[in-house]
Amino acid sequence: MRVTWISTEPLAELPYLNAGRRKGEILEDRLPVFDALVDRLPTGLDALVATADLQFRERPNGRHHHGLRLLGETVPEWLTEEILPQLGVDNPQCVGALLCGDFYTVPALDKRGGIGDVTDVWRCFREAFGWTAGVAGNHDSFGPEAAPRPRLSPRQGYFFLDEEVAETAGLRVAGVGGVIGDPKRLQRRCEEDYLNAFAAVLDHRPDVLLCHDGPEGAERGQAGSPTVREIVEVYPPGLIVRGHAHWSNPLATLANGAQVLNVDSRVVILRPAPERE
Ligand SMILES: [Fe+2]
Fold first, then answer.
1. How far apart are the CA of 89 and the centre of ligand 1, in A?
2. Regarding beta strands 171-176 and 208-211, do their DSSP bridges make them parallel or antiparallel, or are they unpaired?
């Protein structure tokens, strides 16, 4: 799959709250959603929505009185009610969600970072769309026991991918979660294991590879791993979707023609390009 076009201006923005850098400070910012076209999607799949790094909370809206939800719990409803219909995508069951990790921030927004349960974010995406595939970020745990992976079954349309490949809706989706680091800590692998994980899933020739950290891009400001980039460039070109580090230019093309789409703190909607007459 190849991205053939991505909008430079967002279609819309969703306001949210973020912890400020000074203690006790809470800032308002906005989550942009971008429209993009890909060369093809399997029949029956009208769009993919991809996002990562929503370490924010919703703005108070008077409807939820049990604390502010994680922003990722509110994004699916925003997309299905306000954004996708504008693009003529009227059946959310024909849409798949791609989650590239880091959906947690502390409830009081009194500090940045923290690790916590993001199961409800996965549930909200799955309930809104036909299926959800994704990887864990280094701030994500699952359930009250803070497990490294969720108890969510592919039979129910959840495809949690950690050095794994799944087929859904005619699409082969691979994933490598976490970051390079001390393997004793949550969602981390040593560099050798991390590189081997990319090679293992790329051997399956996925249509799309999801990762949290991942290859660097070709331009300045497209931070990531140079060694993962070297591995990716050995394989035939494909589409990689990643988060973890924000890129102002969200799309990179590597030496072998592989594309890297960065969805850190943004949503990208991928739709099939209209067929030429
Ligand atoms: Fe991260």
1. 30
2. parallel
